[in-house]
Structure formats: C-alpha cells, structure tokens
Write a structure and sequence with these properties.
With about 250 residues, this protein is mainly alpha-helical. It has helices at about 5-20, 25-35, 40-45, 50-60, 65-80, 85-90, 95-100, 105-120, 135-140, 150-160, 165-175, 175-185, 190-205, 210-215, 220-235. α8 runs parallel beside α10 (about 150-160).
Amino acid sequence: MLGELDAVRILLAALARAVSIDEQECVVQTTRAIANLAVTSSNRQRMLSHQHGLRQLIELGRSSSNSVQEVAARALVNLSYEADLARAIVQVGGLPPVIEMLKSSRPQVQQEAIWVIVNISVLPDLEGVLTVPELLQPLVALLQTGDSSVQEQAAWALGNVSSNAMSKLAIINLGALGALRALNAHHSSPDLQAASFKALLSLCQVLTPLSRRIYIGGAPSVKEQQRLQKGVRKTRKQRSPLSEGHSSIM
C-alpha cells in the first residue's frame, strides 16, 4: 500500500534532506522506514529506479554513528535480497561501505553486513568481486570474535564465497582453517558447528587427503553425519533472512 503511494521516493528524498542538515535521529528513523518497506519485493523493485538514493543509503555504512550504521546495514540486507538490487549495490560501489561495517565494534552491524555479503554471494556472476583481501580479511577475523551469532554468519559467508580453488586458497592463506576447526570441534552451538563444518568441507577440497583428515578428522558416526549434513544443506547458498521486526535501535 505504502509503495503504491510512492513512499520509496518520498522517504529517499526525506533521507537526502536529513543527511544534508546532519539530523542524525531523522536519518535513523527514515532509514529504518526504508528497511521496513524493503521487506516486500515490489518495494525493492521500486528502489531500482532511484540510483542516487541507493548510493546515499550505501554511504551511510561509512557513518561514525553505530545507530546509523545499523539501520543502513539492515536496509541493505533487505534490498540485497533482490538479485537485481544486489547487483546494483555492487555496481554503484557498495562493497567498501559494507567492508567498513564488517569492522564495526557492534555485533549487530557486523552480522547484518555479513548478510549483505551472503546475499551477493548467492549470485554466481558476483562471486568474483567478493574474493578480494579487503573483504576476506575482516570476514576471517570475525571467526574469532566473541559473538557466536557473528561467528556463525561469518562461517556461512566463507562457505558461500569459497566456490573455486582460487578463493579457497585465498581464505586458507588468511588462517581460516584453524579458526573454523576450533569452532567446529569445541563450540556448543549446533548451528555454528554446522556452518563451520560446511566452510571446512569447501576449503578442504584443495588440500591433500592427509591435510583434510587433520582439519575434518576421522569419519563421524552416521548420526553425526546426518546432523552435520542437515546443517550444511540448510546454509548452502541461501539468502539471508529478511530483517523486518528487529528490535528498535536506541
């Protein structure tokens, strides 16, 4: 309904005004409204005709404000759920601000920035732009953060972007194998274990049989194989969840 009333254009215009006069609370609330509109495909499609507005939304990811970064990341997650918009985000220079958000001190910003990467990685024609050191380094570093949700999403994303030998070797050279092995072997979260196991399976394809056994171990029990494979299937090249209804940002 709101989309039919041209709410996307109106909100983007309001965002431009708020940014121009540096009204941070107005920027936060307007961006949150855009994120909520973007949970529907029709509104995401409407966004495609507003390239300037999309660029401005992307640039909010560079903000020094955690609150602004968080709503910007949330909006980009929802928008990048649409394949055409995921491509548009890359084409208008969206990856550097997303990389900035990966380096945020706030776990919620980190997680949603990872989800943007996950949505982009689903598209085979965009996988190549994600295998640059500037992006892979912070993604691997997040495997060692203290937040299990962020670690899970980082492992999921690394499993997605390691689709060819070159990307696998680049991730391995950044030290991902040891961190993933530790998460898979010692963490109590079944979802995190499944995500790290998926990434390990992908990366170990370029190792020798002996090296694979070091990181994946011996053959698990039938029950364990079923549990792990269920987790692997669940996280295989899926888009992120749409982020409508997340808790309010203070």
